[in-house]
Design goal:
Layout: H1 2-10, H2 16-29, E1 41-43, E2 63-78, E3 81-88, E4 97-100, E5 104-111, E6 122-123, H3 133-136, E7 142-149, E8 154-159, H4 165-170, E9 174-180, E10 190-199, E11 209-210, H5 215-220, E12 225-228, E13 241-244, E14 248-257, E15 262-266, E16 271-275, E17 282-286, E18 288-291, E19 295-302, E20 307-313, H6 317-321, E21 325-331, E22 346-349, E23 354-357, H7 360-369, H8 375-389, H9 391-394, H10 412-416, H11 418-427, E24 429-435, E25 438-444, H12 451-462, H13 474-481
Parallel strand pairs: 1-2, 2-5, 3-11, 4-9, 10-14, 13-21
Antiparallel strand pairs: 2-3, 5-7, 6-8, 8-9, 10-12, 14-19, 15-18, 15-20, 16-17, 16-19, 20-21, 22-23, 24-25
Helix pairs in contact: 1-2, 8-12, 11-13, 12-13
The structure holds heme C and copper (II) ion.
Amino acid sequence: MKIFKTLCVLFIASSIFTSCKNEEKKALAYTDTSEIYIKGTMDAVLTSPPFVPAPIGDRTAKKLIVNMEIIEKEGTMSDGVTYIYWTFGGSVPGSFIRTRVGDLVEFTLSNHPDNKLPHNIDMHAVTGPGGGATSSFVAPGHSKTFSFKTLNPGLYVYHCATAPVGMHIANGMYGLILVEPEGGLPKVDKEYYIMQGDFYTKGDNGAKGLQPFDMTKAVKEDADYVVFNGKVGALTGNKAITANVGETVRLYVGNGGPNLTSSFHVIGEIFDKVHIEGGSLINENVQTTSIPAGGSVIVEFKVEVPGTFIIVDHAIFRAFNKGALAMLKVSGEDNKKLYSGVRQEGIYHPEGGTIQTMPENDQKEMVVNSKEKPLAQKIADGKQLYMTTCFACHQSEGQGIPNAFPPLAKSDYLNADVKRAIGIVLNGKTGEITINGKKYNSVMTKQTLSDSEIADVLTYVYNSWGNNKTNVTVNQVKEAKK
Ligand code: HEC
Ligand SMILES: [Cu+2]
């Protein structure tokens, strides 16, 4: 070390200085964190998801007082579906705890007197038996205090570890505790807290009413709901997380399980940095990152273009059929250099094996000259299109997916206004709409279809599944464009 320092001094004026400094920083990380000196006491600010407390910045290590209350309460799993959640701090996931390495955390766990069961907490950030579980086991109407020193920086899961452990976790008893390194994590513009969990209910996905926990399904790992932040739609529509073009977003992402590993992915973004497994190793330029049950990850990415970015578990049926779907809404100016939007429409002729491009003007002329196809032909062509373009969201019988994609079958919204329906396929749709008495607040992307294709697909939809048999003409589509 001494020789090293001397070298640094020798080269102080040269560019090598920076690399010496980096070496010293690295050396710091290896100092014995159990020896970090504590200066003063402070109360920890805890936040409920998707928010996180303020960064620690350059504050010194302190005695950090954390008070956590366990609350058992009924909440909403999905539209018309309720569930008795067991929570740390009243939310699923539980309150976010933010500390720095070397803090002495004095942790008090209180079990609300109205609760029915004893609970405890196992924090993966704790070095000690049971991660605190043995010292924190607490009956309703009681509280327990224990303390621990944070020795390793990283993002850690905490959870209840009272028997049957799986059941306590399955009911929502998990959250995240962040231990920042000396000096804090690098500054970013937006930080959010997201945690995945799998849920097991007596009734299958969508079955209404208060749904009790199903132990048999949990043992089989046959989840009815896989969700972010405790419920279907916790982070969609007007509850989406937000950022502005040019900002860097950092997500603290956990996976409470109890069973499933998450294939965490943001559609239309690439993670610039991933703290693998919530630790110190940073990977770069990652599409999908794996989060084990009882594990975490920190991802960072700059948002360059505006739009709605869908956050999913890329085990994709979980996203579109079980609820593992959230949204990040980015506002700001378009950047056509980075992302063009639709530049040209083409018609694909499988027989010819070529993609023929069709500039907008030519298309109009062709449409003017072409006669309206016979109804049966339109329905047949429209069905083909439906099965490749619309089917993924609105489903094969137009039945949609509850809370995600509205039905087209017997849709009062569809049948009330043809022009509006054409507009939706032409331009996409976002914002709250009510279909057959149910509210949807989601995103339908603009569909890349020609005028005659839109006429065909809508004619097929209107002539199927009990709809009002409207024959949508190419001229109506052209009218709607004006
Ligand atoms: C990526 C998923 C997705 C695809 C693909 C998609 N839609 Fe939609 N669609 C939606 C969503 C989500 C809404 C509701 C938007 C909102 O909440 O504002 C919607 C709404 C609608 C509505 C109005 C509401 C209703 O149920 O009557 C119509 C009509 C519709 N879509 C037709 C189509 C047609 C026709 C196609 C294929 C050409 C299609 N959609 C493709 C997701 C999709
Ligand atoms: Cu518990």
